[in-house]
Amino acid sequence: MRSHSCPATSEITPERVFHALSDPVRLEIVRDLARLGAATCAEVTYDRPKSSMSHHFKVLREAGLVHSRGEGVHLINSLRREDLDERFPGLLDAVLGAIGTTDQDAS
Amino acid sequence: MRSHSCPATSEITPERVFHALSDPVRLEIVRDLARLGAATCAEVTYDRPKSSMSHHFKVLREAGLVHSRGEGVHLINSLRREDLDERFPGLLDAVLGAIGTTDQDAS
């Protein structure tokens, strides 16, 4: 089992978290991971180019939002809920609420 | 009295808000405006270059985070607390909490 590098909880910074959330594709990944719990890259990337999605996952991991671990040929991705709640209480829930609100408006 | 353009509450998007919050100088402005309530640019820019700060305020305004109105020769800036709370409940409080947490860690 491989595990991709990501910052320790105490090293997660607000500006990197917000940068990671400043892109609509990455917001979609975050929302889908919140819904699915854990997912392979393929399950949340749909038909988007693999190189582009690799970059987005890298940004999310380096910001401390997403944890990815290798299982066989797959990468299993999940939100770092507990770490984020510990570091910035209430932030992830508010972010997920904000994303959901937008969806409701668009429907 | 002049008022600088900014999006209507319903047009505020998560990705633009998060982009505006992805810079440490803009986070500092947001934190200072939360503390001061309303402030001229000079009161929250310290010794930073005016052109750079004008850009940061423009990004914050265009994202819907900050409202600026001209009074005489001054621009008075404030957070759009009510608009943001209406659009994304709990988000601004969580953001301000995240910024404060980081400060405590650094002290």
Describe the protein's architecture and organization.
Chains A, B: This is DNA-binding transcriptional regulator, ArsR family. Chains A, B: Keywords: DNA-binding, Transcription, Transcription regulation. Chains A, B: It holds the Pfam family HTH_20. Two copies of one chain form a homodimer. Chain A is α+β, with helices and mostly antiparallel strands and 107 residues long. The first copy, chain A, has one domain: Orthogonal Bundle (Arc Repressor Mutant, subunit A). In chain A, strands 1-3-4-2 form a four-stranded antiparallel sheet. In chain A, strand 3 and strand 4 form a beta hairpin. In chain A, helix 1 runs antiparallel to helix 4. The longest helix of chain A is centred in the C-terminal third of the chain and has 16 residues. The C terminus of chain A is likely disordered. Chains A and B meet through helix 1 and helix 6 of A and helix 1 and helix 6 of B.
